[in-house]
Amino acid sequence: MKEFKGVHSILLVGVGGQGTILISKILSAGFMQRGYDVKMSEIHGMSQRGGSVTTQIRYGDKVYSPTIGLGEANVIIAFEKAEALRALPYLKRGGILITDDHEIYPMPVLTGDAVYPYDALEKIEASGTKPIVVKAAGTAEALGNARAQNIVLLGALVTAWNLDDIDWEPLIRQYVPAKAVGINLEAFAVGKGMRSMV
Length: 198
Known about the structure:
- This protein is an alpha/beta fold.
- It has one domain: Pyruvate-ferredoxin Oxidoreductase, domain 3 (3-Layer(aba) Sandwich), CATH 3.40.920.10.
- The protein contains 8 helices and 6 strands; from the N terminus they run βαβββαβααβαααα.
């Protein structure tokens, strides 16, 4: 990670229970270790019922607000592709969008009141953004712990955003449950080696 002046913004979007807040805490701790000022905020939309969860991280030499406005996110990490499409207006021109190819159907879709955007990735590409699409949820399940999806995405971010100069392993050990450390470290390593599916 290169030194810079100013502020960088990372927006994480998912649904309740996917671990967006955990990955945000790990990222924030890593940036603070590098000496950056860090601000983080969380927005829960009925997260207990599978509603949207958004976490905003801003870091730099001096950060006055955690809020990320439209067109201001350097990076968006989406745990689900419909959430990636929903968050797209916040991505800065030339920014990085990392998304799982995972699909989670919200209650309005399950009740027939809304239609799931199966063409979410195509719409993102049509906007001029080339998403980095990874199989984070599927990879985590194959490793034996579906909850490690967030750490797979963290690994993909470290590679895409060139964050290798932060020692992430001790932070993962600190923030994930002790019994799940081994699988999460494996998930992180696999995520770092992932390349986009599209």
